[in-house]
Amino acid sequence: MARASVTPMAISKGDTVHWNTPQGKTEGKAVEKKTKEFTHDGQKFNASEDEPYWIVESSKSGSKAAHKESSLS
């Protein structure tokens, strides 16, 4: 039986997304896609076209964080 390839979900600005935290799954809003190296809250991230990051805003706390697109659902 052939194995189906999994295509990452297409995320757009404003979409509701989910990610895992030590406290469990949480949700928020996709705020900004990053495809070049950037700094967020003093931490450096190496985003690229092939491995983009998103700045997401937590629905619960309102805080913003950077997550790899591949870690969002």
From TrEMBL:
<dbReference type="Pfam" id="PF11160">
    <property type="entry name" value="Hva1_TUDOR"/>
</dbReference>
<feature type="region of interest" description="Disordered">
    <location>
        <begin position="1"/>
        <end position="45"/>
    </location>
</feature>
<feature type="compositionally biased region" description="Basic and acidic residues">
    <location>
        <begin position="26"/>
        <end position="43"/>
    </location>
</feature>
<protein>
    <recommendedName>
        <fullName>Hypervirulence associated protein TUDOR domain-containing protein</fullName>
    </recommendedName>
</protein>
<feature type="domain" description="Hypervirulence associated protein TUDOR">
    <location>
        <begin position="14"/>
        <end position="72"/>
    </location>
</feature>
<dbReference type="InterPro" id="IPR021331">
    <property type="entry name" value="Hva1_TUDOR"/>
</dbReference>
